[in-house]
Amino acid sequence: MISESIKKIIKYALAEDIGTGDITTQATINPRKKGRAIAVAKEDFVVAGVAVFAETFKCLDKNTKVNILIDDGRRAKKGDVIARVSGNLSNILQAERVALNLFQRMCGIASHTSRYVKAVRGTEVKILDTRKTVPGLRILDKMAVRIGGGRNHRIGLYDGILIKDNHIEAAGSITDAVKAQRKNPFMKIEVETKNIKEVKEALKCDVDVIMLDNMSIPTMKKAVDLVNGRTLLEASGNVSLENVADIAAIGVDYISVGELTHSVRCADISLKINA
Amino acid sequence: MISESIKKIIKYALAEDIGTGDITTQATINPRKKGRAIAVAKEDFVVAGVAVFAETFKCLDKNTKVNILIDDGRRAKKGDVIARVSGNLSNILQAERVALNLFQRMCGIASHTSRYVKAVRGTEVKILDTRKTVPGLRILDKMAVRIGGGRNHRIGLYDGILIKDNHIEAAGSITDAVKAQRKNPFMKIEVETKNIKEVKEALKCDVDVIMLDNMSIPTMKKAVDLVNGRTLLEASGNVSLENVADIAAIGVDYISVGELTHSVRCADISLKINA
Amino acid sequence: MISESIKKIIKYALAEDIGTGDITTQATINPRKKGRAIAVAKEDFVVAGVAVFAETFKCLDKNTKVNILIDDGRRAKKGDVIARVSGNLSNILQAERVALNLFQRMCGIASHTSRYVKAVRGTEVKILDTRKTVPGLRILDKMAVRIGGGRNHRIGLYDGILIKDNHIEAAGSITDAVKAQRKNPFMKIEVETKNIKEVKEALKCDVDVIMLDNMSIPTMKKAVDLVNGRTLLEASGNVSLENVADIAAIGVDYISVGELTHSVRCADISLKINA
Amino acid sequence: MISESIKKIIKYALAEDIGTGDITTQATINPRKKGRAIAVAKEDFVVAGVAVFAETFKCLDKNTKVNILIDDGRRAKKGDVIARVSGNLSNILQAERVALNLFQRMCGIASHTSRYVKAVRGTEVKILDTRKTVPGLRILDKMAVRIGGGRNHRIGLYDGILIKDNHIEAAGSITDAVKAQRKNPFMKIEVETKNIKEVKEALKCDVDVIMLDNMSIPTMKKAVDLVNGRTLLEASGNVSLENVADIAAIGVDYISVGELTHSVRCADISLKINA
Amino acid sequence: MISESIKKIIKYALAEDIGTGDITTQATINPRKKGRAIAVAKEDFVVAGVAVFAETFKCLDKNTKVNILIDDGRRAKKGDVIARVSGNLSNILQAERVALNLFQRMCGIASHTSRYVKAVRGTEVKILDTRKTVPGLRILDKMAVRIGGGRNHRIGLYDGILIKDNHIEAAGSITDAVKAQRKNPFMKIEVETKNIKEVKEALKCDVDVIMLDNMSIPTMKKAVDLVNGRTLLEASGNVSLENVADIAAIGVDYISVGELTHSVRCADISLKINA
Amino acid sequence: MISESIKKIIKYALAEDIGTGDITTQATINPRKKGRAIAVAKEDFVVAGVAVFAETFKCLDKNTKVNILIDDGRRAKKGDVIARVSGNLSNILQAERVALNLFQRMCGIASHTSRYVKAVRGTEVKILDTRKTVPGLRILDKMAVRIGGGRNHRIGLYDGILIKDNHIEAAGSITDAVKAQRKNPFMKIEVETKNIKEVKEALKCDVDVIMLDNMSIPTMKKAVDLVNGRTLLEASGNVSLENVADIAAIGVDYISVGELTHSVRCADISLKINA
Q1: Helix ranges restricted to H, D80-192
Q2: What number is the ipTM of this complex?
Q3: What residues does CATH 3.90.1170.20 cover in chain A?
Q4: Please, which residues bridge with residue D212 across strands?
Q5: Which among B133, C91, C207, C227 counts the fewest CB atoms within 10 Å?
Q6: Mean pLDDT for the stretch of residues C44-67
Q7: Chain F neighbors (3+ CB pairs < 8 Å)
Q8: E108, F187: Cβ pair inside 8 Å?
């Protein structure tokens, strides 16, 4: 089911595109005319966001029918029909661009995530996203990461504790910063560390997760040996498809990848109308 | 000046990230503590969106000072300081991610646009964007294209007439579709064509712009010769940095590039706090 | 179909009128009681806005049935039943005033527009509206003008270029102002002129439409002769039902009439309940 | 002071007109250029809404200065300067139309109200408005009536009890309908009557106001004699400037006039920029 | 029927609780699983707000069925089943807390009101609420008072005139303050008085209701004797279940009780799922 | 600093109370008149929400000055002046009720929380709130708990994992339910248990917190002995000021108390104007 928050995003996007009306369609298309459309994959990718795709059409016109042929998480191959849409033609034409803009982005994110997940296959490592999402679409970006096989780091500043260098500096030390957080009884605590000395201090504070931020692979290796399973470790910074397997091999628990959502290549999907 | 619409986008993005509060910062940072930050380029790119970057901090706390050192449209080199921020530290930390997410995207779009503009330098061709923007951020995406030296195609379905294949089919012919649009006295009319036969018909209808959609370079060349300056021509579909100069050389007036906004690589910018 | 924007207008208007509740109805009418109503024309007019009228009742209570007997654009004669409403009586009573306020205004606008259209019958002239609409209701005002046989000038400042004296003065000359606008590739350009000298300059700039603003009929005649079909002409200012035929006779293409929407006499419609 | 509700109306109206931007002004006017403007009366009228006029400019740009020369309730004569505006020129141009649309309507309402008030001068009769206002602008319409010397009837369905024929019919009789309302201890009760028999029954129920709806002057005279000051009387229906003095002479306490707000002729005001 | 205003309250409350998603339920419950629940009284109380309770579930998922067994205004005994809910289990779990928070508060208010109503049984006294409600929930709080047998004082500052000491002081005297209000023809006027001298002045001004504010019982007795039925009297301030019968015995018409809504003990209701 | 979310609550509450205008004040108070007010404690309590109190006045009129004399978390004694307000008198009068309604509730919650905190003094036990808050005011309710010395349990369903009986039943067992949650890497996991058998299972699953729900004191004692510090324990259900010390003595880590926010007695505060 589509939540109210996602409906709001879709409605906003439709209003942004349609504004005071699709003047081309109004002039040429009989407002009662029916139509059909198919969403076709023009390359191979992981499908994500079929419910968002469908809801965009229904949001504009609740009588539109959308039939999903390939579900979230499955792979579409070039030429595959992912969904069939039928209903009022004017409304299908007006929702088309928004539906694709949202859907192509989600498929793009899921596909890219799945490449990272595949690259670390065989290890216990989980691929994480970050807060480097497109403003306004975070819940969709994070949903696409999950569909692609990744896990979500905290959604925002409100649902996870991540002590960064500025917090540490302001508090005086990692130890003091962690102590300050202990007032929040039900949140795990993660601390960002830049070097082995900081990893040692964080370990002493008994935090739940230690982030190894922008460390070289040898330094991260040292950290893994030092911690030796006593707490969870997250590698972060300068991760790419080229080096992710090497990082995973070190033995960290999580690898977070900003690129999953901040630099998205949309999947190539085409809506063929009356095809 | 920042319009109310852009302020709304920023407020929404801040609410999305901060939610019920930045629990880490609340626990570690004295709410009265002051701080400073600099935005540093970590690669070369075209700066775009400095007012959006600044407004994000001011939106959270109107007393924050933001000093812009490199203006929209100018190039930042790796290591350049683009802006200085000073004010309440907690508020700077809470606005940081949203300010960067918006700014990095705009710089990324402007930079990519400028690559296309440069590739067609020496011709009269204008690079255009499309409606393939991220839902909710269209006005920022389109602003970044302009800053990068491109021109905006219509903003949405409401402020431009673009007759596509479905409109043509529903109306019966290009001629009938154009006739239907003539009722709108103050809008230019563009028609999408797939082949030379359609170009000929559009030309006869005296439309303002003819889009050559997904045509091969030889076919486009034929269209340019045929039209011979009697109307404007827009090349569209499968444009890349590799082929854009070749397309420009044909003699079209506009080349539209979906990739400018639909598959954005964010510029690499870092906010160094208390640096 | 009623767009989301129109639904918002209706919901806002209902909230404005009903506020925390219709205290009279709550105290006297059994909340389950059913009722019927008819909308009766109390004078002759052009019907416009039947879907808005119907939606107002449905917006408050989706189970209300509204049966339209006279459609948009047709003439109602005094005594004609335009629509039948049936459903929950309390809800009909609570929606009544808002439904009529919106509907009567639209019928009033369409009727007045149709008088102008009739006055220029036999010429090629199109009657245009302006941006002198009631704040908040522009899309309804402009829809009513279309139903009455008029055409819409630009909807707002965003979907049409109209270079006025202040733009000309700021740019230095008509020529410079037009040159500045050429950056927007897909919009037609209209220039406001006050005298023949300005018409000449605008003509040289090859603009799409020239507005003859507040000119005398002889001056407009001179302009028509001068332009001689090379561009479109819009007469504007001090137009009335008395002089519109004379202006049309000159040979301009458009006549814009602020009065259509800024000084509306509502059509007289009565809702008879349980009649 | 301008309330939050009025600010919302103004913001909405600005957004409606400006949309994604004033493309003409953006292309021709230097965004830093300053300008001045004066609002000039082009006919005689009662000024109403100066604060709304001023707020429209400030709402778009809080640095705009607006200097009011003729206050609400005073008469402007043709040629009078009502207000001076100075600030950023682009913002003045963008707010111009909305400021005038709101201001001209309020002045039109106040002026028309003052004609009715003048027509009943010398009697104790108060002129009342109705709920026949333009959806969305009721608080401004009602404010303009007060400025013009009229009084406000109830604002909406929530702040006054008016028992109409449908309530009477549903309750069984005037007596029963009034009894049902007595549960609301702090509201006055008005009953709509169509004939002398109903006036008699309402009088017996000890209601606070009796509306004489659509009665002839002789019938109203009979009602006044019958009631003889024991309760307040409101004449309603078919009131015009022609007959309002005659109705007032009968001795009713209030005369309500739908025309004040439902069929408004805007006052003629011009904004001269850089004059 | 549930008004749009109440739906807005419910939607806001659901968004407040669910935020970006019920992470526990999402991980454990099959999103297609069906479930049933019963709302059980865990003490004796007056039921109020069944429609709000039902709408909360339907608001999240319009396919949820809610069957009400004990209607508003009736007494539930410990152990009674008040309502049955069935539908999608995840949605029932997510709406549970909000539905209870709203319903328990309304039942608590109605129950407490009914205690006051019972305490004055046998007299003509009506129990009134005040504006001391929880911000955002006033319409629900006031509805619960009515269900509990009380009457509503004015809803807000806009639908009733209550002249308090500050108004009197600013106007100069009770007489002047009342005279100023007479401009509003359709509202009753209430004046707050602190002593017999003020009661006398208010009486002379012929106001509709006199509030005896924070007076001792002997002073109120004196006021009742003095007024002798010529106007209505409301006792206010320091009313409790202990003294309300004594105050009623004096012969006032209304007793207003802030405690009804400002210090609410929620009724104890439990939602048993799959019971 | 007051967040945007809190400002929204305040604005909504002001709109709810003021609606279309404070008709009493408008008629009696000169809109330019200045005034002063003091907030006086009429009983002893813990102050909470001074910034909310101040913002309510400023929200209506940003020129109002509010001077806080007793800060959040400190005790006010009967007769103490907590704050001084000065500015436009009409605006002070219109904001008064909303400011007090919000402030009195927060002080009431903080005071009641402090009683519980005091009752467990000398132990390590932390007092927790629940999600039984008033819909719409949760962030204020939870802020007041913190000011009173309590800690916040999760804010909503989105920022904490609490596995309840329905989740357990749906998953099959505590073990399966916990396993399902492990996919969320950064959240602590709490499990609700009803008896010692369930405590044992939860302990085996290595959860972060075990809730002892509605258990008798001897049963809880058994659980404490069994767990023996290996995980955190939260006592929940039927907690009162009478038994909280006994529960604390058992050795649990947290005691959650629904009553803190669901059944609030407002603190008694009076705003004396021009005193």
Answers
A1: 89-119, 138-147, 165-171, 174-181
A2: 0.95
A3: 4-111+264-274
A4: D193, D235
A5: C227
A6: 97
A7: A, B, C, D, E
A8: no
